[in-house]
From TrEMBL:
InterPro entries: Thioredoxin (IPR005746), Thioredoxin-like_sf (IPR036249), Thioredoxin_domain (IPR013766)
Organism: Rhodotorula diobovata
Pfam families per UniProt: Thioredoxin
Molecular function terms from GO: protein-disulfide reductase activity
Domain of life assignment: Eukaryota
Record site feature (Contributes to redox potential value), residues: 9-10
Thioredoxin domain sequence ranges: 1-72
Name the UniProt record assigns to this protein: Thioredoxin-like protein
Site (Deprotonates C-terminal active site Cys) residue list: 2
């Protein structure tokens, strides 16, 4: 899950990498959440920085990456 905001510069910078990965791994579900439009979801995942990428298996968050570091 890509947690982002329209006003977040690093979010815009990393977006093409997220889209490329989504195209490359078609068997994996990729989702984007605008934290300003879906504040309850952002709170549920305890998002405190953007961008934040949450990796979810089943109904459980198994990993999280904060920031726009494409190498992470």
């Amino acid at each position: 899950i890509d947690f982002h905001a329209a006003w977040c510069g690093p979010c815009h910078a990393i977006a093409p990498v997220f889209e490329k990965l989504a195209a490359q791994y078609r068997g994996v579900t990729f989702a984007k959440v605008d934290v300003d439009k879906a504040q309850e979801i952002a709170r549920a995942y305890k998002v405190t920085a953007m961008p934040t990428f949450a990796f979810v298996k089943g109904e459980r968050k198994v990993h999280e990456v904060r920031g726009a570091n494409a190498q992470a």
